[in-house]
Design a protein that fits this description.
The structure is a single chain. Strand 12 and strand 13 form a beta hairpin. The protein is α/β, with parallel strands linked by helices. The strands form three sheets. It has a seven-stranded mixed beta sheet with strand order 2-8-7-6-5-3-4, sandwiched between helices. A four-stranded antiparallel beta sheet has the order 9-10-13-12, with no helix packed on it. The protein folds into two domains: about 110 residues, Aspartate Aminotransferase, domain 1; about 240 residues, 3-Layer(aba) Sandwich (Aspartate Aminotransferase, domain 2), CATH 3.40.640.10.
Length: about 375
């Protein structure tokens, strides 16, 4: 049985103010999450460290919730401020591998750190949808990894500008065959598509949770396979990394796991909100959300006026809630804003991103204004 989407939508106050198609930029916050954050601030103000000391166990519960959400053990999870911080932790750690394969026009926070640290960087292009069914060609990736013996592949699960969804399971097999480490940016996937790391193994997966996960700012997750932790020297450390007060670095005693990246205190309120959000998503069902989003995007694509070109012209299994279109009207963004319709300009066109709190009536309103 499908969730009551209208009832769920009422829990997101911003839907009363805007026709909001901009989740790929910033997800909406539920009333329950607002209350959760307010409760945290109130208790911290009233109790100080007495309340703070109860939050250490709460963070472990958050890791358990995250682990359940992506199907891994909580000890494989680090709670980090955001995706960009995670990238700047792991790129120095992997420096001994030397080479990395990146995708042209992928998210800058994914591609820039490798260049800063002077990796041997190789690139695979993104093909226009009209020229190729596969915007990111897995055969080309496999051939490049094999021909150049590249040790790392870093890629977004969902491309931020177009919504193209890569077949991660196939990519995982390709990396395994070529002895290549797979690093995945899941920011545009978390909360939008099902993630099961038991079925789709990757070496490192990171993501911010303020977009499709709708958990606000200051909370990101980092999954790292225990074999990777064991293989490389830690690039960062602090008391939070070890849970000990030892001032002497003793890795054999510290039992370093994913938490090596938790170098200091957490943004506790942000992670309490993340836990609340995961409860909400689990109640709705991530597969229900995924199907709801595809229904909305397909409805939009089928009715888009002829004067627009769909950039994100992908098969359903390659699609998400992101639809990119080209427009010949340079003033269309301003027209949409006047109607309180919120989208983003990206690359050559417009990026419309639809989530579970959107409705078919809103899509009709968008199509009417575009016409």
């Amino acid at each position: 049985m499908d969730p009551d989407w209208q009832k769920i939508r009422a829990n997101y106050p911003a839907t009363e103010n805007y026709t909001y198609f901009n989740t790929a930029s910033c997800g909406l916050i539920s009333t329950a999450n607002l209350n959760c954050n307010q409760r945290y601030q109130n208790l911290l103000g009233q109790q100080g460290s007495v309340y703070r000391d109860t939050l250490f166990d709460e963070m472990q519960k958050v890791k358990t919730a995250v682990g359940g959400f992506i199907q891994t053990e909580p000890e494989n999870i680090a709670l980090i401020p955001n995706f960009s911080s995670g990238m700047n932790y792991i790129v120095p750690m992997l420096k001994s591998l030397g080479s990395v394969l990146l995708i042209e026009n992928d998210y800058p926070s994914l591609t820039l750190p490798w260049q800063l640290h002077n990796y041997e960087v190789h690139w695979v292009p993104q093909n226009p949808p009209q020229a190729s069914k596969d915007t990111i060609n897995l055969d080309q990736i496999a051939e490049t990894l094999r021909a150049k013996s590249i040790k790392i592949l870093a890629i977004s699960w969902v491309q931020y500008a177009t919504g193209f969804t890569v077949a991660i399971k196939q990519l995982s097999n390709i990396c395994k065959e070529n002895n290549t480490l797979l690093v995945v940016d899941a920011t545009q996937a978390l909360g939008a598509i099902p993630i099961d790391l038991t079925d789709t193994p990757v070496d490192i997966l990171m993501g911010s949770c303020y977009k499709w996960a709708t958990a606000g700012f200051g909370n990101g997750i980092l999954y790292i396979h225990p074999d990777v932790v064991a293989q490389f020297d830690t690039p960062v450390i602090g008391k939070g990394s070890t849970g000990l007060y030892d001032s002497v670095y003793q890795p054999e005693k510290m039992g370093l796991q994913a938490r090596i990246f938790e170098v200091g205190h957490h943004n506790y309120g942000a992670f309490l909100v993340l836990s609340q959000t995961l409860n909400e998503i689990n109640e709705m069902g991530i597969h229900n959300i995924y199907n709801r989003v595809l229904t909305l995007t397909q409805y939009f694509k089928e009715r888009l006026p002829e004067q627009y070109t769909i950039i994100s012209d992908y098969a359903p299994e390659q699609s998400t809630g992101i639809v990119a279109i080209k427009s010949r009207d340079s003033k269309i963004i301003e027209k949409l804003k006047q109607e309180k319709i919120i989208i983003s300009a990206r690359g050559e066109g417009l990026r419309i991103s639809m989530h579970f709190y959107n409705t078919l009536e809103e899509v009709d309103h968008l199509l009417q204004v575009l016409s």
